[in-house]
Design goal:
Helices cover 28% and strands 20% of the residues. By secondary structure, it is α+β, with helices and mostly antiparallel strands. Helix 3 packs antiparallel against helix 5 and helix 9 runs antiparallel to helix 10. A hairpin with a 3-residue loop joins strand 1 and strand 2. The chain is globular and about 70 Å long. The longest helix has 18 residues. Strands 4, 5, 6, 7, 8, 9 and 10 form a 7-stranded mixed sheet that branches. It has a 4-stranded mixed sheet with strand order 1-2-3-13, with no helix packed on it.
Length: 366
């Protein structure tokens, strides 16, 4: 069957079914056998693959589930209907981890959870923004104890963060930490900025979206700021699209934020805070930071470039346009009979080595 149809107004038109089985042509270890919308994708070992001997499973079924069906997905895993659950509910995974369930596999992720400070000179309503002063941002950062967040809320082995880029992602790269927790020093910084014991500080709120544990984290941090700095901070929860609009347009004082890297280089994190970046929702502008990144862009020596990127991150971590809270972990559920699943921070998975019980049989997944 031809996939390139007749000309229309001088242009060719593709047959829309070219991506459907059995038309889709691939050269990898698997071919698409079935696609049942919102139910499953079935992959079958490709008999034309050059390295068939290394393809462990003949069939892989990827079972689809809507986000609100994650409880059902876990029940399927618990009853043996699926062998690998790649996106379990955090609450379920945390409880299983607490019980030392061997089916839980947590490993470092490729991103960080943090708070973003609006660094613009004024808020959207024209009033003075205290977070334009680096001393205020540093004081707020130094007043936070992050341990209770990962120990009592997230509970998936996350490491508390003293810098933006998660550790261990890039060989040879070493982040330079920002200010450490020191409440007395934080109070002195706040005093130097003109807000002794919180006096005269404007009423502000932590902005966050609905879902996940954002509200619980905000409660802990707001309480610490009140106790440590004498500043009472409100909490404002919004639906996700409104939240994103407010964040990207700097219509906030403090907001929860996160970043997941896209590629294997520190710039996948650092480019976000260039002064020209559309992703720079903190509105932070630092000429020295930009210059370090520009130098790294032009540097042919890999080692020298890496040091320049470390220096750039050091500036960001010290200047505190963001308050790093913890580094993400990934969580999979699979039993000892499932082999060959790589625990990769970016969750990049090559299916050909995955099997159940070491045999060439079906592997269920989500």
């Amino acid at each position: 069957k031809p996939y390139f149809r007749e000309l229309e107004n001088g242009r060719g038109r593709y047959d829309e079914t070219w991506t459907h089985p059995p038309h889709l042509i691939t050269n990898g270890p698997y071919r698409l056998d079935k696609w049942e919308f919102k139910r499953r994708i079935r992959l079958v070992a490709n008999d034309q693959y050059w390295n068939q001997a290394e393809v462990t499973s003949r069939i892989i079924d990827q079972i689809s589930a809507d986000p609100d069906q994650q409880q059902i997905s876990y029940m399927k895993f618990a009853t043996g209907a699926i062998d690998w659950l790649a996106d379990p509910l955090p609450e379920i995974a945390a409880e299983l981890r607490r019980r030392n369930d061997p089916a839980v596999h947590t490993f470092p992720g490729f991103g960080s959870y943090f708070y973003s400070f609006n660094c613009q000179p004024a808020f959207a309503d024209g009033s003075k923004n205290p977070f334009a002063d680096v001393r205020v941002r540093q004081a707020f950062a130094m007043a936070v104890d992050k341990a209770p967040i990962v120990e009592t809320i997230t509970r998936l082995g996350e490491a508390t963060a003293s810098h933006y880029i998660p550790p261990g992602l890039f060989a040879g790269y070493a982040s330079r930490p920002g200010p450490t927790r020191d409440v007395p020093a934080a109070r002195e910084l706040l005093k130097a900025a003109g807000y002794e014991n919180g006096s005269g500080f404007p009423r502000i709120a932590i902005l966050y979206s609905s879902g996940s544990n954002h509200d619980k984290i905000a409660q802990i941090i707001a309480r610490q700021w009140k106790e440590g700095l004498g500043i009472e901070v409100d909490q404002e929860k919004l639906e996700i699209q409104t939240f994103r609009d407010r964040l990207s347009n700097q219509k906030y004082a403090i907001a929860r934020a996160s970043w997941i890297g896209d590629y294997e280089d520190p710039t996948t994190f650092l480019d976000k805070y260039r002064s020209t970046s559309k992703g720079n929702d903190a509105g932070w502008i630092n000429a020295e930071y930009d210059a370090k990144l520009q130098s790294a862009d032009n540097e042919p020596d890999a080692t020298t470039r890496e040091r320049q990127l470390e220096q750039a991150e050091g500036i960001l971590n010290n200047q505190c346009p963001i308050l790093p809270i913890y580094h993400y972990t990934n969580t999979y559920l699979f039993g000892p009979n499932v082999t060959g699943i790589p625990l990769n921070p970016r969750q990049m998975v090559m299916f050909q080595g995955i099997g159940v019980g070491g045999s060439r049989q079906a592997v269920g997944g989500k």
